[in-house]
Design a protein that fits this description.
The complex is a heterodimer of chains A (about 120) and B (about 110). By secondary structure, chain A is an all-beta fold. Chain A has no helices and 11 strands. Chain B is mostly beta strands and about 110 residues long. The chains are: A mainly beta (about 120), B mainly beta (about 110). Chains A and B meet through strand 5 and strand 10 of A and strand 3 and strand 8 of B.
């Protein structure tokens, strides 16, 4: 059974850097094809994909946020870390991490998801 | 940037059929995926690769695709189906993930 759980600060000040950790179990990020992604959702708004890290350290970022995001992994701890710089009140959102499933055709989707963690940006 | 467009809301009576559309230029090239999200909860996968249903998902949920539009159909809607629904796909190159604007289904 795959599970993921997000952790990090609930409140950050504008201009600060946010660091979130996704702790997972039930799979290994050393296995070929495996990946973990981050998705966020501002209150009352839609989901927005942020970043993805593959088993081989390859990364993908949302083009609109690429300059502010860094995603890394610690396979020994079964963790994925997302950092977002220069936080602004508009970045207030619930941040989810999710396991990326894929098939032999290279198609992929997110399943399952962590419960999410609400981050508020305010001075 | 690439966008997937959904209707903001759909209202349906119990037992009726709800259809939620998702439109995007790259959908003829990329599969679509559907998620259900209830208040305060994480999204749950309902449909993958346009039409496939994961184990444990009720048969009343089905997906279809035609050109630049994919559709999630909920047949025999139940009160418990009241939730937000999101489509997800990728850009034409398959590099970036994109979520739809979301549809609130009211029963």
């Amino acid at each position: 059974q795959i599970t993921l759980r997000e952790s990090g600060p609930t409140l950050v000040k504008p201009t600060q850097t946010l660091t979130l950790t996704c702790s997972f179990s039930g799979f290994s990020l050393t296995t070929s094809g495996v990946a973990v992604g981050w998705i966020r959702q501002p209150p009352g708004e839609a989901l927005e994909w942020l970043a993805l890290i593959y088993w081989d350290d390859d990364t993908r970022y949302s083009p609109s946020l690429k300059s502010r995001l860094t995603i890394t992994k610690d396979t020994s701890k079964n963790q994925v870390v997302l950092t977002m710089t220069n936080m602004d009140p508009v970045d207030t959102a619930t941040y989810f991490c999710a396991h990326r499933r894929n098939d032999s055709g290279g198609y992929s989707w997110f399943d399952p998801w962590g419960q999410g963690t609400l981050v508020t940006v305010s001075s | 940037s690439y966008e997937l467009t959904q209707p903001p809301s759909v209202s349906v009576s119990p037992g009726q059929t709800a259809r939620i559309t998702c439109s995007g230029d790259a959908l003829p090239k990329q599969f679509a995926y559907w998620y259900q999200q209830k208040p305060g909860q994480a999204p749950v996968l309902l449909i993958y690769k346009d039409i496939e249903r994961p184990s444990g998902i009720p048969e009343r949920f089905s997906g279809s695709s035609s050109g630049t539009t994919v559709t999630l159909t909920i047949s025999g809607v139940q009160a418990e189906d009241e939730a937000d629904y999101y489509c997800q796909s990728a850009d034409s190159s398959g590099t970036y993930y994109v979520f739809g604007t979301g549809t609130k289904v009211s029963v």
